[in-house]
Amino acid sequence: MNMRSRTIRAAAAAAVALAATLGLAACGPNTLVPGTPVAQSPGRVTQSQPIDFTTAPADLDSAAQAVAPGIVDVNTELGLQNGEGAGTGIVLSSDGIVLTNNHVVEGATSISVTDLGNGQTYDATVLGFDRSEDMAVIKLSGASGLQTAPLGDSSKVSVGDAIVGLGNAGGRGTPTAAAGKVTGLNKSITASDDATGSSEQLTGLIQVAANIQPGDSGGPLINSAGQVIGMDTAASQGFRMSIGGGQGFAIPIDKALTVAKQIQAGQASDVVHIGDTAFIGVSVSSTGGGAQIRGVVQGGPADQLGLQARDVITGLDDKTITSATDLTATMDQHHPGDTVTLKWTDGTGRTQSAQVQLAKGPVG
After folding, report:
1. d(CA 163, CA 231)
2. How far apart, in whole angstroms, are the C-alpha atoms of residue 50 and residue 163?
3. CB-CB neighbours of 217 under 10 Å
4. SS3 305
5. Are the CB atoms for 179 and 51 separated by under 8 Å?
6. Catalytic residue list contains 103
7. Which of 42, 119, 167, 291 is most buried (CB neighbours < 10 A)?
8. Which pLDDT belongs to residue 113?
9. How confident is the model at residue 334 (pLDDT cuts 50, 70, 90)?
10. Of residues 103, 188, 192, 216, which has the active-site annotation?
11. Pick the catalytic residue: 48, 154, 217, 236?
């Protein structure tokens, strides 16, 4: 199994560095053991070890139970990486519109979603994503009558509020609740993806002391009234805030819904991509002069042009590529079937360019 990992550098809104290395909470191939069973029917919410409470645990348990029927387990096959992934999603409509993190579905060649409200499993497609905000909207095929998650108002969240995160912790398929409290608002983190070599900064996040785990990404952050006030996005791996719990980050639900509505309306932008993902067929890392190729997918567009590992991509059409992040952002503006001019420097130092038609690739 190929391994994909993401790391996060966290900072306060004022850019004060936080001394920690963090990992996104999606259960990617680096965290989901092959063959891990995934429940195909609804299960009662279980509690992970609590950290601290300003509300009785029973109240937070009731809050989690109220939201559980409105979430889904998201399971992905990562065909090009020979891996699997697991995460969580929040049901926005009865016909199967689901909000999740982009990194939950990124790299997916197929997506299977189990609704906890009715226990049924559906195939799913990605309607669109915003990589810069780590959000994606997926559509369940043939779904109807789903129970939606009760949504709250994230503008009313305060430091010290009791919360509970709910999700597919560890990819086990059983909804698990992690109780804690809000410890910060308007926080920023920088997430790096070793698969693409790209990175993005997420801003305006809710910071919590709660035992958010791999697999919880895309799941709801819930207040004591049983309302979703955020979407769990990242959790600490390198340290713990206290025994039995760590540090987590969530996208405020008001912000998430704004992006979700734009995606549902099919409104592409500089950061919102609608529809299938365009594909060159390379894995890259940043180098001084562009995006250096680490590997080439056999039969893909890059392979057809004769590109090889260690070649450096320096341009795509009229866009100069200075890093792996540049290449990812530029590709997000294209769709399968587009013809582009690719520019690169080969292993001998020669500058080359050629036109190629982009293929349909894995999500994101």
Report:
1. 12
2. 11
3. 34
4. helix
5. yes
6. yes
7. 167
8. 97
9. very high
10. 103
11. 217
